Amino acid sequence: MRAEWRGRADFHEVAEAVGVPTNAIVAAGAFGKDVLVLYGKTASADWPPVFRVLLRRDEGGILQPVGEPEGVPHFWREFRRRLGE
User: Fold this and answer.
1) How far apart (Å, rounded) are the C-alpha atoms in residues 27 and 19?
2) How far apart are CA 44 and CA 51, in angstroms?
3) Would you say residue 38 has pLDDT above 90?
4) pLDDT at residue 5 greater than cutoff 70
5) Average pLDDT value for the chain
6) How many CB atoms lie within 10 A of CB 14?
């Protein structure tokens, strides 16, 4: 899997579909027709709880959630561990 850092402007459509500010998006990646989004419900906390949701384009081409968002327990602890902190 290839990863790259992108600016907030690239997440505008995704943030709008999820209903959060662009700076609350942690990551987004396309998997076939779906887009997996990781986000915090607030961008103000240093380590906000992280949620995940799948998005898919509807017949009009608009990204829409597929199912309900789910919490991602211990996301930041695992993130920091993998970074070697």
Assistant:
1) 15
2) 15
3) yes
4) no
5) 85
6) 19
Amino acid at 25: I
Query: For the chain, what is the largest distance between any 2 Cα atoms, rounded to a whole number of angstroms?
Result: 44
Encoded tokens for 5: 């850092």
- What tokens does 49 get? 């709880």
The reported pLDDT for the residue numbered 2 is 52
The tokens for 51 are 């949620």
Kindly report the CA angle at 48 between 38 and 36, in degrees rounded to 5? 5
How many Å is the Cα radius of gyration of the chain? 13
Model pTM greater than 0.90? no
For the chain, the first-to-last Cα distance in angstroms comes to 23
